[in-house]
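User: quick one
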Amino acid sequence: MIEPLEYVSRIRPYVPGKPIKELERELRIKECIKLASNENPLGPSRKALEALKNFLETENEIGRYPDGSGYYLKNAISNKLSVNGVKVSPDEIILGNGSNELIDIAVRAFMGPGDEAIMATPSFVVYSMAVQSAGCLYREVPLVHHRHDLLEMAGAINRKTKMIFVANPNNPTGTINKRPEFEKFMERIPDGVLVVIDEAYYEYVMDTEYPDTLGYFMNGRDVLILRTFSKAYGLAGLRIGYGIVRKEIADEMHKIREPFNTNTVAQLAAMYALTDDEHLRNTIEINEQGKQFLYKEFDSIGLKYVPTEANFIYALLDSDSKTLFNALLQKGVIVRPTGPKEIRVTIGLPEENKRFIEALKTVLNI
Ligand SMILES: Cc1ncc(COP(=O)(O)O)c(C=O)c1O
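Assistant: Done. Structure below.
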């Protein structure tokens, strides 16, 4: 067999869950509910769905390659993003096959052998995978009170550091780092280090002290702000996200991205999703209601949790998370064990949240 690359063989692979239909068949349960991947329980906007239907019925573009520049979508995103009346230019936006892909592209574009990245732990697993697959090293800085320890992260920078990843809100904890500490953190970032600010859950944040990171970008700082259509916009299955970054950095990333990395239907759906403010409002409202319901229920059964700024809740158990995960699975409820005694549960529709709580009470004998 061909010899694997040493640094690739060390990567712990991401293990995807089984298709839900397969689980239902195996467990002989009808209507499993999946609260494991932080998707929007309302699904996509009707406007996006209608646009897709019309497109598939009336156009014959599927046989052609997509617009590799994402011209219309980048313009639509640009029209939504401005600071003090100054718009983010389409040249400063880069599209990805999910924001996941942009993490990978950024690492490959700016990190080479011997370079290092800094990230928090626990945080989004894809950062370390991307860095490892480029043959580079990473340093992990533990969360403090379930939040990024930004000053410790800045203090960990050395001459080899090329990139720092900050998930804000963080996955799996749902916490944010607020404006004042973010400001101090940014003051400590030397030239030559790219700060990747992952705002996958941006639309859900309620805290008024959430940093406005576009300001750093407008001031010419080396930040790559990542956002996605997978979460609040409900388009996870189509794989589309975007980055906001200085043009010079975007240009380097474009050089190594696959020329047609985002597909025609994803670009179209994302453009229409951006026009549907009502769907976004409903999404946020249902998330808020679900959050309050789950907080109340968790309080009433004495389950500890971390207050969230996203569409999922990180719960802290007294017992083994895998055991709870398996017990809930038998009841047709899929959550995500994220640590030995931690689970992450996506906030679902009201009936899904109720079912989850009923199942939880049954398996915990409450
Ligand atoms: C923090 C964070 N960043 C990025 C992503 C990936 O999003 P996308 O679907 O755009 O690749 C996720 C998805 O779970 C996430 O939690």
